[in-house]
Amino acid sequence: MTRKILVLPGDGIGPEITAQASRVLAACQARGLDIEVEEALVGGAAYDAEGSPLPESTLARARAANAVLLGAVGGPKWDTLEDISKRPEKGLLGLRKELGLFGNLRPALLYPQLAEASSLKPELVAGLDIMIVRELTGGIYFGQPRGIEERDGQRVGYNTYVYSEAEIERIGRVAFEMASKRNKKLCSVDKANVLEVTMLWREVMERLAPEYPDVELSHMYVDNAAMQLVRAPKQFDVVVTGNMFGDILSDAAAMLTGSIGMLPSASLNASGQGMYEPCHGSAPDIAGQNVANPLATILSVAMMLRYSLGEAALAERIEAAVGQVLDDGLRTADIAAEGQRTVSTAEMGDAVLAAFDAI
Ligand code: NAD
Ligand code: IPM
Ligand code: MN
């Protein structure tokens, strides 16, 4: 059966990096993958064209797709929009919420060729392979009440950090399952020394543990986890945490792998439908220059093949092609050593395609 893929380039470097990832999808198609690919607007681009960061037509097409590939949204042009419901980021958050994409997988995997690009010493990151499982449709990102209002003659801003047991349990199960397929170590990151919501989080994780006897569960406070990630990151296998802590820790983990431009992600719902995107943003500082690293987006296509399309062999082939171009010394500016020759976004795409075809 033909599977539907919706590509949402978004803003900033989004169109540049998704263009390269779309070429990889087309190469898979040429190899017999039965897909139909279409494109739609999201984020600031959608706001500019249609007055909404998530037009109804985009949402309807996302619902109908087996998988969505998203570039990135946002940028200074829209940061001052008075109506925050129109901000590009609301388009992304709306997609996650509407599609029920609660399980966000962010693999911080060091390609050995990039050990020197990591901000940590090579011996600290050699062989690094962490899977961060981030809850994506709850927590402080979505809790009610929220707002900015006048109280006692001054404005106050507030958000609500809330998780139900059911929300914690379903992300906990994703993480335990993931750990049982990997090195069987799960570290749950919380702030249970201060926040009731994460006291409950910890309790639910403990309650699930006996169902996964092969997995060793540990707990860590988020401040310590941030420190441990840059002190001795290889102690982690699978990390499970809430929406905001996961956002922050995954950007830190990205740097261990050489660049935020290397970190892909999958966001999954209960029925296996997924949205795939790099963990980085729209990088307004380098947008339009053909210098952004497209590998996180290309690796997100590999995750799409693995998690939504059941095409693990093709996924491995893309990952191998990325390994090959790194072996061949190709580097975009973010992963280049000082003085090393760099390639453009499109040249990196060319090289991945050539390697993919040669495998
Ligand atoms: P960012 O990730 O866009 O950029 C941070 C730094 O990393 C910048 O110096 C940028 O040039 C660099 N960088 C990011 N991706 C890169 C790549 N592929 N290749 C090379 N360098 C890369 O984060 P920011 O600057 O905090 O945010 C910019 C905008 O992106 C904001 O509007 C933010 O809301 C949005 N954002 C969107 C997403 C998303 O769509 N998923 C994620 C994060 C941030
Ligand atoms: C990410 C981004 C988003 C988030 C923003 C753009 C809403 O930082 O995907 O990591 O905070 O989840
Ligand atoms: Mn983020």
Automatic annotation (TrEMBL):
Main location: cytoplasm
Pathway listed: Amino-acid biosynthesis; L-leucine biosynthesis; L-leucine from 3-methyl-2-oxobutanoate: step 3/4
Pfam families: Iso_dh
EC top class, as a word: oxidoreductase
Residues at which NAD(+) binds: 281-293
Key words, A-Z: Amino-acid biosynthesis, Branched-chain amino acid biosynthesis, Cytoplasm, Leucine biosynthesis, Magnesium, Manganese, Metal-binding, NAD, Oxidoreductase
Binding site for substrate: 96, 106, 134, 223
CC terms in the record's Gene Ontology section: cytosol
A GO molecular function held by the record: 3-isopropylmalate dehydrogenase activity
InterPro entries per record: IsoCit/isopropylmalate_DH_CS, IsoPropMal-DH-like_dom, Isopropylmalate_DH
Enzyme Commission (EC) number: 1.1.1.85
Domain Isopropylmalate dehydrogenase-like: 4-352
Binding-site list for Mg(2+): 223, 247, 251
Site feature Important for catalysis, where: 141, 191
Compartment(s) where it occurs, according to its Swiss-Prot or TrEMBL record: Cytoplasm
Cofactor note: Binds 1 Mg(2+) or Mn(2+) ion per subunit.
Subunit structure: Homodimer.
Family statement: Belongs to the isocitrate and isopropylmalate dehydrogenases family. LeuB type 1 subfamily.
Record's function text: Catalyzes the oxidation of 3-carboxy-2-hydroxy-4-methylpentanoate (3-isopropylmalate) to 3-carboxy-4-methyl-2-oxopentanoate. The product decarboxylates to 4-methyl-2 oxopentanoate.
Protein name (Swiss-Prot/TrEMBL): 3-isopropylmalate dehydrogenase
